[in-house]
């Protein structure tokens, strides 16, 4: 996925779309927007969520192997195996996971895998009025990979070694200080 | 380590999805593994899942939505709301088209193909699910069971509601008798008294009234002569009416002033959030009743913006086709809020971020993104926008960046030769002789004695000649001419007068007034001038809703006139055109169905001239000074006013009101100092009957006598065809269609005679009241066929909402088909889709098959839309008809001749910077020539150094979005935004609780210190501070210097039967758990508990300014009565208390 920070204007359509599409309980967020401002008053909104890392730190600690990574790179949770211990929540360097108070299992962005199965886009990508979110397989030629291959992009906390797979355009350097 | 992935098109472990939901297990220990059950096998396409394309009502923008409804445990539940890819505001995206979200799906795309494509949709639209499933909703009719505002309610039957509204009722608990509206239904009185043709009687009466008014206007008629004419008028009509046992007082509101109209005018309908077809339908009822008082909340929205535009163009809703623009001045127009809304603005922002557009964002609050430096923040002092506009105008003129050829064309003929379908009056001559009776009027051939046609004159070369006799005239001229009367007067071209205004200050001086640096103004002017005509101003409430708002709007719009960008690609546009949905085969409009004639000024005196009333003429004939009038009159205001409605009721001016029907509104909270309205609402003498039609009981409905439960937009609420507002993404024709996604959750009252289900709602209320009155246009002979069309002479019944709405869609679809927008052969699959998915299809048999198919085609797409590319002609002008008069004015002679209703002084007739001031002078203080005392005189900077505004954005919509719980999770409680520089002197930091004190009182809130607000301005993110939403929680955040008594009268608790609230009860437990999670269980289990999320935060409105020159009624704009929200002088005071604000909740 690609997040174009300069296009994001903090309308929260994606946050609510995700909450509605995935039945996210109130006050919990699978995706969220961080709100920063520069000293000159410039406002910056940065969408964040699970980065579906290529080397996810959340997978090894799981005692029941409920959390796993799929062949095409989605990091997911099998609700039937999860016992809600919270080890993965602690392990995630991005704070992307939480224990769902309704289900009692670990919860986070799934890239709307149920929609991907129907050939649709994640709800957050569809809802975004400005086109700040772009999604697609990283190994094909598409709008996403064309940007990644032609323009400089950034990731969050590259130093963790998790290999996050969400790429940002114009991510302010202050965020990764 | 995971190896490089191969592309996979979606083979996933079935158990990996997050869609399986646990059964709700309440107190079970977390360590026990939850059981899982399938919510549904296929949430998106499975059995029991259906989709409806409709239109959102989260705000007023009318985006499209696609609603997914699922059947869960036998209950239909709105599960998801997405955008409509057919709608130009939502625009279409799909996996291979995610960037450049600029276009919608081709209109002709089969609807089944559209399901794999989506439209974008903002947070409010998505959160609409909470709008429907709101425990505080009332579902059954209520009547007050105590004094007004006591919060005591009892349930009554629908039949009792209708009966008492029509024929009067008694509040048993207090013994009060309430009148019924039948006693002022003059048409009915005449008919029931035995007059065979009440309409003829009324027409004849009006004819006599018009003659009386003409005599009153005649200066040669003396006072005595007029009184004699009035006496014989009264005698004549007393006799006619007396023959059937009626008196003049039964028919006329005021026999001494028969031009005020019939007693039917004593019924007022006012609506807050209205859209079609609720608007047309309710207007139709009011017209059937014979009242002139059908009103909208426009003063609380954009009335000063409308009136300001009306002055220069003759039309009111105008904003740019920004997709065609290169440079935009976006001023007082909230990012994420103003049309085309948080959804539609996405295109604007993406275009800017892709370097396709530069936006100067002129606003005390910073834009939400800089879009790669293409959105430039220009902080400005509230209320001073005319200053930067005139500074820019100065630079455009100095640098030759104005469209001389266009401005020099004096007539339509001349302009057409240049390709323009309109022209300006820049070259027309104006009499500018001080103190002359013709001051401000255009110099005409009649005045000069060279003709008799009252044609404005221009100067061309050496001659002064009629405007339509040359192709080009002089832009600048000052000179003296000799009138036919022999007098010599000074005349100037309009452009000369305008230029004098523009150059009356230097750019540096203008800069100091508005706080924008000279260099920024220069950059703005250069960018605007060089991009013209693909440069335009995009403006709204922030610049307009001030006392001086209309002049400000005009000053800004003069820039558009100077560059000639009107009605063309990239320039200013009005609204898209529409299908003939109100009247094509069936006449569903508010006229032509047998309604009686009505006359008289509306209670709020908009579009009415005091100087044309008998009461005025009477004073003049008696040599009395007719000024001050009791309240101002607003001949230039195109729409209605909250404040003037309530002031009118309070003063019984121009006449008393008997009954108010208020729909989907909250004036007490929505207006600046709206609490003042509550004084009137509580007064049963001034307002004997108050009926509310609403989904919840808010701060205003608290005072109602009767409450009609209403349906939301996802049910039958506000169903029909929605026009789009100005700009309209440039589309030639564009309208969104709203039909039910689910059937109503309100009480099922009965079935219509032909067996259709009827649910409590606004629609069925007016139908039953109309039928009880036997008013024209209701019942068996309800809806006429349109003349010269296939149903000419035929009548159709109106017994239920379905009878009306199906025919609206038939009109729209058929007219679209006849215009070639729909294919000649309607695809059967599209019709089938609607029949399988849409609740409205159950009633398709109301229509013949061909009409149903045309309607279904448009319903399937959620509206009718034409492409951008097809919306402009070869010259780049819009295909829509030219809005307004077709003459763009830099001087309005009618305004120059209009007087301030209190002082009697004439208004200045051109765009100008005028300080915000009261309407009339206060005390012995300095005053403006045509308005009152400048606010900075009244409230010096030394006492009130800051300005209070509120912030609108993509999250909350006025005060009716407190139930958007997913949005609440993001921003649960608001605060006051303060600039860092201002807090340095105050010594406060984020989290400190402060008092924001205005001359009216103070509000208390925590502070958020930010650099993204202009120095000298404080702002409250709008939408909170509620104290009544079916339940009442006494507000503690504001104290008032005057009028605090109303707050003191609020009830401690509300008594309301559980059976009449909470349509959420029957939802599956899991749905409630997700929708409300940790909210108090009683709130959604019973709907009677207080959920603090609905009552927290603050609203700035209670302490915003009143006008001391008008008895402290809310401050308004002078010409349009727009609520003045943004000119509030305040100071901020530390309280010493601290309120924790979690950093992630600091967003607005």
Automatic annotation (TrEMBL), chain A:
GO terms for molecular function: 4 iron, 4 sulfur cluster binding; metal ion binding; oxidoreductase activity. Residues 1-29, 73-102 form the 4Fe-4S ferredoxin-type domain. Keywords: 4Fe-4S, Iron, Iron-sulfur, Metal-binding. The keyword Lyase does not apply. Coiled coil: none annotated. Pfam families: Fer4_11 (PF13247), Fer4_4 (PF12800). The keyword Iron-sulfur applies. InterPro entries: 4Fe4S_Fe-S-bd, 4Fe4S_Fe_S_CS, ET_IronSulfur_Cluster-Binding. This is 4Fe-4S dicluster domain-containing protein.
UniProtKB/TrEMBL annotation, chain B:
The keyword Kinase does not apply. It holds the Pfam family Molybdop_Fe4S4. Keywords: 4Fe-4S, Iron, Iron-sulfur, Metal-binding, Molybdenum, Oxidoreductase, Signal. Residues 49-136 form the 4Fe-4S Mo/W bis-MGD-type domain. The keyword Electron transport does not apply. One of its GO terms (molecular function) is oxidoreductase activity. It comes from the Archaea. InterPro entries: Asp_de-COase-like_dom_sf, MopB_CT_Tetrathionate, MoPterin_dinucl-bd_dom, Mopterin_OxRdtase, Mopterin_OxRdtase_4Fe-4S_dom, Prok_Mopterin_Oxidored. CDD domains: MopB_CT_Tetrathionate_Arsenate-R (cd02780). Belongs to the prokaryotic molybdopterin-containing oxidoreductase family. This is Tetrathionate reductase subunit A. It comes from Caldiarchaeum subterraneum.
């Amino acid at each position: 996925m690609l997040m174009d920070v300069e296009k994001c204007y903090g309308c929260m359509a994606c946050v609510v779309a995700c909450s509605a599409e995935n039945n996210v309980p109130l006050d919990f967020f699978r995706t969220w927007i961080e709100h920063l401002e520069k000293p000159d008053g410039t406002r910056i909104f940065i969408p964040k969520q699970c980065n579906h890392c290529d080397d996810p730190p959340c997978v090894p600690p799981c005692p029941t192997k409920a959390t796993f990574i799929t062949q095409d790179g989605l990091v997911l949770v099998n609700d039937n195996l999860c016992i809600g211990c919270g080890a993965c929540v602690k392990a995630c360097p991005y704070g992307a996971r939480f224990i769902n108070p309704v289900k009692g299992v670990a919860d986070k962005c799934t890239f709307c895998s149920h929609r991907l199965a129907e050939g649709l886009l994640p709800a957050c990508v569809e809802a975004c009025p400005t086109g700040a979110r772009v999604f697609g397989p990283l190994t094909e030629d598409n709008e996403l990979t064309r940007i990644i291959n032609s323009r400089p992009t950034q990731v969050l906390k590259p130093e963790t070694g998790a290999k996050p797979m969400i790429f940002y355009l114009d991510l302010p350097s202050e965020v990764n200080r | 380590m995971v190896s490089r992935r191969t592309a996979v098109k979606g083979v996933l472990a079935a158990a990996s999805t997050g869609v399986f939901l646990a059964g709700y297990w309440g107190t079970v220990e977390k360590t026990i593994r939850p059981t899982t059950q399938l919510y549904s096998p296929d949430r998106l396409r499975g059995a029991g899942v259906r989709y409806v394309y409709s239109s959102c009502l989260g705000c007023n923008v009318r985006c499209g939505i696609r609603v997914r409804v699922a059947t869960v445990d036998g209950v239909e539940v709105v599960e998801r709301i997405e955008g409509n890819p057919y709608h130009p505001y939502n625009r279409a995206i799909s996996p291979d088209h995610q960037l450049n979200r600029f276009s919608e799906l081709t209109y002709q795309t089969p609807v089944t193909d559209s399901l794999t494509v989506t439209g974008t949709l903002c947070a409010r639209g998505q959160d609409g699910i909470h709008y429907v499933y709101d425990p505080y909703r009332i579902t059954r009719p209520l009547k007050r069971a105590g004094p007004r505002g006591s919060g005591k309610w009892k349930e009554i039957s629908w039949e009792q509601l209708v009966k008492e509204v029509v024929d009067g009722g008694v509040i048993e608990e207090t013994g009060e008798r309430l009148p019924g509206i039948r006693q002022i239904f003059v048409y009915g009185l005449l008919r029931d008294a035995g007059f065979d043709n009440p309409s003829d009687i009324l027409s004849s009466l009006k004819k006599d009234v018009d003659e009386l008014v003409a005599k009153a206007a005649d200066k040669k008629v003396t006072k005595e002569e007029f009184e004699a004419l009035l006496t014989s008028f009264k005698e004549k009509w007393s006799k006619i009416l007396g023959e059937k046992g009626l008196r003049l007082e039964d028919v006329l509101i005021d026999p001494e002033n028969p031009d005020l109209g019939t007693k039917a005018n004593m019924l007022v309908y006012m609506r807050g959030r209205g859209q079609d077809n609720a608007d047309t339908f309710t207007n139709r009822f009011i017209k059937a009743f014979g009242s002139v008082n059908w009103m909208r909340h426009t003063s609380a929205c954009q009335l000063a913006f409308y009136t300001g535009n009306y002055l220069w163009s003759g039309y009111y809703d105008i904003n740019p086709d920004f997709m065609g623009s290169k440079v935009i001045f976006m001023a007082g127009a909230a990012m994420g809020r103003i049309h085309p809304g948080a959804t539609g603005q996405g295109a604007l922002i993406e275009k800017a971020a892709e370097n396709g557009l530069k936006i100067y964002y002129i606003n005390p609050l910073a834009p939400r993104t800089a879009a790669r430096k293409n959105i430039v923040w220009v902080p400005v002092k509230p209320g001073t926008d005319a200053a930067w506009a005139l500074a820019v105008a100065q630079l455009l003129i100095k640098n030759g960046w104005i469209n001389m050829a266009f401005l020099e064309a004096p007539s339509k003929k001349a302009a057409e030769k240049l390709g323009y379908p309109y022209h300006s009056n820049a070259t027309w001559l104006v009499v500018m002789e001080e103190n002359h009776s013709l001051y401000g009027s255009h110099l005409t051939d009649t005045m000069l004695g060279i003709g008799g046609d009252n044609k404005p004159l221009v100067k061309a070369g050496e001659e002064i000649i009629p405007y339509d006799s040359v192709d080009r005239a002089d832009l600048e001229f000052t000179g003296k001419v000799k009138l036919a009367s022999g007098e010599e007067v000074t005349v100037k071209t309009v452009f000369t007068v305008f230029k004098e205004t523009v150059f009356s200050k230097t750019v540096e001086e203008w800069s100091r007034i508005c706080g924008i640096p000279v260099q920024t103004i220069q950059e703005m002017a250069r960018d605007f001038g060089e991009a013209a005509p693909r440069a335009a101003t995009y403006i709204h409430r922030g610049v307009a809703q001030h006392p001086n708002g209309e002049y400000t709007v005009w000053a800004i719009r003069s820039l558009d006139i100077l560059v000639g960008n009107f009605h063309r690609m990239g320039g200013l546009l009005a609204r898209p055109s529409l299908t003939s949905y109100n009247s094509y085969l069936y006449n569903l409009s508010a006229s032509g169905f047998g309604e009686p004639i009505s006359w008289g000024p509306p209670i709020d005196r908009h579009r009415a001239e005091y100087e044309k009333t008998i009461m005025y003429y009477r004073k003049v004939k008696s040599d009395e000074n007719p000024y001050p009038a009791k309240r101002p009159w607003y001949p230039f205001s195109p729409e209605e006013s909250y404040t003037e409605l309530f002031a009118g009721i309070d003063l019984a001016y121009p006449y008393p009101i008997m009954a108010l029907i208020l729909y989907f509104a909250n004036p007490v909270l929505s207006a600046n100092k709206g609490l003042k309205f509550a004084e009137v609402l509580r007064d049963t003498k001034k307002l004997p009957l108050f009926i509310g039609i609403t989904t919840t009981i808010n701060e205003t409905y608290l005072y109602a006598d009767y409450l009609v439960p209403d349906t939301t937009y996802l049910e039958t609420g506000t169903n029909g065809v929605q026009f789009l507002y100005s700009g309209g993404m440039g589309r030639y024709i564009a309208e969104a269609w709203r039909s039910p996604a689910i059937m109503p959750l309100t009480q099922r009252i009965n079935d219509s005679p032909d067996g259709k289900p009827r649910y409590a709602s606004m629609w069925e209320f007016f139908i039953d009241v109309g039928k009880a009155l036997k008013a024209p246009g209701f019942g068996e002979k309800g809806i006429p066929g349109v003349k010269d069309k296939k149903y000419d002479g035929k009548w159709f019944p109106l017994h239920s909402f379905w009878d009306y709405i199906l025919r609206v869609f038939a009109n729209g679809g058929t007219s679209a088909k006849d215009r070639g927008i729909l294919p000649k052969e309607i695809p059967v699959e599209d019709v089938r889709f609607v029949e399988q998915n849409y609740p409205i299809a159950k009633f398709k048999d109301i229509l013949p098959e061909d009409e149903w198919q045309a309607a279904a085609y448009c319903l399937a797409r959620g509206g009718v839309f034409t492409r951008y590319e097809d919306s402009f002609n070869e010259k780049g002008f819009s295909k829509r008809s030219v809005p307004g008069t077709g003459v763009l004015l830099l001087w309005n002679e009618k305004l120059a001749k209009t007087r301030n209703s209190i002082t009697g002084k004439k208004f200045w007739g051109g765009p100008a910077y005028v300080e915000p001031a009261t309407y009339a002078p206060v005390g012995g203080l300095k005053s403006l020539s045509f308005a009152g005392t400048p606010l900075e005189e009244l409230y010096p900077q030394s006492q009130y150094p800051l300005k209070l505004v509120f912030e609108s954005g993509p999250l909350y919509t006025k005060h009716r979005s407190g139930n958007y719980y997913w949005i609440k999770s993001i921003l649960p409680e608001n605060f006051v935004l303060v600039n860092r520089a201002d807090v340095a002197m105050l010594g406060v930091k984020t989290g400190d609780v402060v008092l924001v004190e205005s001359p009216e009182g103070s509000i208390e809130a925590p502070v958020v210190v930010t650099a993204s607000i202009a120095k000298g301005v404080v702002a409250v993110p709008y939408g909170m501070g509620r104290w009544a939403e079916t339940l009442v929680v006494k507000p503690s955040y504001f104290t008032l210097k005057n009028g605090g008594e109303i707050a003191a009268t609020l009830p401690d608790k509300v008594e309301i039967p559980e059976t009449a609230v909470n349509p959420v009860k029957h939802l599956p437990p899991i749905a409630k758990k997700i929708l409300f999670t940790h909210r108090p269980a009683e709130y959604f289990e019973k709907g009677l508990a207080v959920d603090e999320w609905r009552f927290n935060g603050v609203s700035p409105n209670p302490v915003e300014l009143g006008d001391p020159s008008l008895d402290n009624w809310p401050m308004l704009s002078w010409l349009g009565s727009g609520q003045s929200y943004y000119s509030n002088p305040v100071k901020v005071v530390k309280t010493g208390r601290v309120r924790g604000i979690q950093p992630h909740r600091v967003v607005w």
